[in-house]
Hints:
Elements: H1 4-9, E1 18-20, H2 24-29, H3 37-44, E2 56-66, E3 69-78, E4 81-90, E5 95-107, E6 110-118, E7 123-129, H4 135-139, E8 145-151, E9 157-159
Antiparallel strand pairs: 1-6, 2-3, 3-4, 4-5, 5-6, 6-7, 7-8, 8-9
Amino acid sequence: MIPFSTFLEAFPPAELPVVLTSETHHEIAEHFTGFPAELLAEYVLDPDEEPDEFTEYMPCLRFSVTAKIAGVVWWRAALEGNDYILQTYLISGSKIERIRIAGTRYTEKGLLHTVASIGRDLEIFVKDDIEKMDLQVLLDENTGTVKRFSILDNGNIRAEGSE
């Protein structure tokens, strides 16, 4: 078993707030040192999930939720598009919760861009739009669809309006 601390060290530490756009993975790739298959198998993939030769993973960032809970974001590129996945873990390495917070998907209407911001208060704003988005579009309340999430002290991720 690979220590969870080794997995966390694969992710650069982040100073919140952060914004994830379709360009973020290009910036991270400049400093990317690799994501060993053993770490993928142990801490990223679900037990029934098999990696394939068409899917690429890259660690993006890590941050503390509490002293006992860590949050990480990785980027996954596959044939149908790419995703930024937020996963919370106990410091022991046990998975708590995972959601897709940003990325690009191919749809019938065009390329669907999703951008996200993670604030210091662990609130996450996710915005979808067919148009290419940057920080300015993320801040424009008149375009796209906006969802809001919070990372709770127990590591669970709650959608706005949920109990």
